[in-house]
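Hi everyone,

Forwarding the result from last night's run.
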Amino acid sequence: MELIVFLLIFGLVLFGYNRLMGYRKGQIVLDLEERYTDQSKYVEAVKHELVKEGRSVEYQGKGRFLIDDQTYILIERNDSMGGGMIQRTILKPEK
């Protein structure tokens, strides 16, 4: 019984972590090598990564991107992974 409860809790934690980190259907997740504090440089780095992936990108301001004719909202997360910090960018489709 305790094993079932443990597995259930573990599954819920894993599911919650994946949702928090941006692994949802339709979202674009980018992990940038550098950390950006200047918003304009950050936007340029995101645009550069998306163009490298072969996408058409236009920044519309206020954290909104037009990517392949669909509007996305920028969500920024800073996480520690492997002993260092990474800046994770999640682009969520606007409904």
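Helices lie at 2-20, 39-52.

Cheers,
N.
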